[in-house]
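Progress note, project year one: complex with tryptophan.
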Amino acid sequence: MNSVVTQQRVLSGMRPTGRLHLGHYHGVLSNWVRLQHEYECFFFVADWHALTTHYEQVAGIQASVWDMVIDWLAAGVNPGSATLFIQSHVPEHAELHLLLSMMTPLGWLERVPSYKDQQEKLKEKDLSTYGFLGYPLLQSADILAYKAGLVPVGADQVAHVELTREVARRFNYLFGRGPDFDKAVIAAIKKMGKKSAELYAQWKKQYLEQGDEQALATAQAMVSDQQNLTLVDKERLLGDLEGGGKVILPEPHPLLTAHAKMPGLDGQKMSKSYGNTIPLREDPAVTERHIRTMPTDPARVKRTDPGTPGKCPVWSLHLIYSSEVSKEWVKTGCTSAGIGCIECKKSLSDTVQVALAPIRERAREYESHPDLVRSILVEGAEAAREIAKETLEEVRAAMGLGY
Ligand code: TRP
Ligand code: SF4
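Model obtained:
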């Protein structure tokens, strides 16, 4: 598969943390559900990544994997549109991680901000391990094994995608310029015709000598649009334009999830560690009680005290779930003491329940058919392996291991 094509491939992973909540839904899953219709998508359970921090508590990981995948499916991630699998079912990730480790400077890994941050944050764990240092490189292998062009991640993961870009660039630089590369490039340029060849040389010079990104983009577009070049030729020229060899491992781009932070029951960011979540799979009566007991604007001591929605966590959830009409009703009612907090919460609770109903329904289906979940993951791993194997063949050959 060629990098010109695979830039449209999307890949993302999630560590198995167990059951998911509305924060995951609005932050990640709704995005995946949208992307699966627009791109070729790969979503996987990063169980090896879980081991880098939880190697002393392996007991919980397995159950978390199933719970998490059921929640993905319940949220609408569709195995007919996206490939879903478990990382450890595709050993090519580990092989690529090993091979990349040969050429990754130690300093690059030590400088990734999450390395020191997490060691500080998880002080009770001994994270001065080889595996934990390699966490972001394993993530690079996850991405590069599929030559993914787009990696949907939160802001905390952007540095890992950046590292992946550097690793890919170094790999291509070291292993992409085989002995016949220059000859093949000259032949490919000829095929474009005289006029295009001149432009190509001019734009390449502008980029390599003056760092003119616009010239690079224009040249890339011209190469991609050439009718009389094979995909392999295009790949060579795209590598040559950037002053390197053939692009064996294309550089991925982070796809930042634009969502504002999902507020939890207490108005802080929704997170399991704050105990303020609304899980996707929960008895509706429990969800109703959680919402009914939410804190409100402290100024509304009595029913007749007017409030300020901006100071109330209930309002933050109305903003996400309620219609314009309901929001207007809350705003007017709250500030004039025309409605009570009980009514206001009841309206929110009803709306959230309606939104969660189809998710719970799908979850029940999968809960009662564990074999179905298992076979989705087995088939996903097979499909993923097909692609990862192809990449590994190229990588092995480039590194002199093509026996
Ligand atoms: N490190 C990611 C996280 O903690 C999970 C992950 C592992 C991932 N491999 C990946 C995300 C590859 C995107 C691409 O959220
Ligand atoms: Fe919050 Fe609604 Fe009560 Fe206003 S009426 S304080 S928005 S719960």
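The two ends are 21 Å apart (CA to CA).
The domain at 282-366 is CATH 1.10.240.10 (Tyrosyl-Transfer RNA Synthetase).
No further modelling is planned for this target in the current period.
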